[in-house]
Amino acid sequence: MDSNHQPNYKLNKTEKKFLRKQIKAKHTLLRHEGIETVSYATQNLVVANGGLGNGVSRKQLLPVLEKFGPVDALLMPPNKPYSFARYKTTEESKKAYVTLNGKEIVDDLGQKIILYLNFVEKAQWKELEPQALPPGLMVIEEIISSEDEKMLLESVDWTEGTDNQNCYIKHKPDQLTINQYEPGHGIPAHIDTHSAFEDEIVSLSLGSEIVMDFKHPDGVTVPVLLPRRSLLVMTGESRYLWTHGFCQPLFYETTVGIITSDVGDLTLSKRGIRTSFTFRKVRQTPCNCSYPLVCDSQRKESPPSFPENNKEASQLEQEHVHQVYEEIARHFSSTRHSPWPCIVEFLKALPSGSIVADIGCGNGKYLGINKELYMIGCDRSQNLVHICREKQFQAFVCDALAVPVCSGSCDACISIAVIHHFATAERRVAALQELVRLLRPGGKALIYVWAMEQEYNKQKSKYLRRNRISQEKKEEVNSDASVQGLLVEQMPDMDNQDSASSVSSINDFQEGGCDSRKVMNSKLPIHTNRTAFHSQDVLVPWHLRGNPDKDKLVEPFGLAGSHDPSPVFHRYYHVFREGELEAACQTLSNVSILQSYYDQGNWCVILQKI
């Protein structure tokens, strides 16, 4: 029924009611959201009552819409009671308009909801304000014609049985990398190695558009839409300081221009195969850029110290947790098998059907403990998430300070050996607050952090006791989990280094050896494995052993020493004193501490949202 024209017959009571509701929906969208409907058919529909804000999920709505033809995009603004759908043809959208108007669907809570549809010229909402691009970044659209795009794609046809793999481009710069990304493939956040390439890096996108995330060390994220046939130019700050990368799912978030980082559950547009041509100039001299803390040419002159602000804390975590755990993921996972009894007990006690988020799921050791729960995992490490997916677990990559899950949507959360990797008290409290945000009222969270007190009630922790292992056994025991989150064993197990002193130079480690008699100039000490802690903020070594599956994982860019025969990596920790975790939890509003305890070298809290 077309709500914009009077029918030629008398409406019955039900039809009159529906017409009033549809007109009311149209006026409400205009008055409160600024969304103007049109009286003629277009490819685009606004679906009133079909939004995340009133309990309709994408999983429910998309199959309903696809009954009338392929849906090019389904955009669902967060916390809004409407969504936008774009069909390939106007005929398909007209079929959906006629059939679905007034149709009942059931939301996530089992309640019936009636859909009201209207045509719009384009999908938009007021919240999406364009963000400024990182300094030195440009996106030049339509840099080549569609004919040139077709020719380039044909020149790199890598389908099986095809010999034509030649690229005819012969430009300066003097280095060209060509990559193809299937739907579901992406690249982790990284900075192209400073010492390897000159300032300007240029990348041509063909075949399919993507959203590339640029992230500043202070946590600001700017998602940038790279349309097909566009040229990305990175110079200065955007090239040297901001990480860039993208996760390429089968569906992706889409809007006009730049997508703001707080949009969350936005989307969908179907992904095609993307081919990128990236041009670089090989550097012949050391880099002397203005960003020494992230520059591999200058970094040895600036060993890490206690962070004095949020920016320095983020940089410390990036280098001494995030990058490290990307590198050691497979080795780390191989040392993580047995579930911890207290965590298993917590998960087993939850009601059947509970939604549980493992914030820092690591290799997914707890995601399958209780089959009666609906568990999702997230981790900062793409390589550990890859391992979770190999096990058929639901897991995704994200930052523990900004988990892309709706507020109040979880019955429980666990955070195991994650929060001790944040480098300031403020960031540790922010991570706790993010856990509370995810919980529904009455929901519970279980939190584990590494304890400074490795001897408690006159009993040594397993971590210290393992220092008795004889040198002949050389048992493979290693460290804990990564920041923002990786899941670990009962305590972060470390390699034996009986001859090393408790403080040594990080530069000595980076150069391939450890002189136990030297002392680093930095204020941040390197801890000796299997010994008591003398400082709350430390770097803990991980000696990487043989890793035959390493080629299956994503290699982090520009990580010094990553190709050494037996490299040593250093992870940042803040070990908690007795009472410190409870004190941090007590700064949160609407939280009650149900239980706090010590568990084999870890301080633990169970809290409830009230």
From TrEMBL:
Cellular compartments annotated: Cytoplasm; Nucleus
Domain RRM: 43-113
Entry keywords, A to Z: Cytoplasm, Iron, Metal-binding, Methyltransferase, Multifunctional enzyme, Nucleus, RNA-binding, S-adenosyl-L-methionine, Transferase, Zinc
Broad class of enzyme this protein falls into: transferase
Cofactor(s) this protein cannot do without: Fe(2+)
Keyword Phosphoprotein among UniProt keywords: no
Gene Ontology terms, MF aspect: 2-oxoglutarate-dependent dioxygenase activity; S-adenosylmethionine-dependent methyltransferase activity; transition metal ion binding; tRNA (5-carboxymethyluridine(34)-5-O)-methyltransferase activity; tRNA binding
Domain Fe2OG dioxygenase: 172-283
Subunit structure: Interacts with TRMT112.
Biological role: Catalyzes the methylation of 5-carboxymethyl uridine to 5-methylcarboxymethyl uridine at the wobble position of the anticodon loop in tRNA via its methyltransferase domain. Catalyzes the last step in the formation of 5-methylcarboxymethyl uridine at the wobble position of the anticodon loop in target tRNA. Has a preference for tRNA(Arg) and tRNA(Glu), and does not bind tRNA(Lys).
Protein name (record): tRNA (carboxymethyluridine(34)-5-O)-methyltransferase ALKBH8
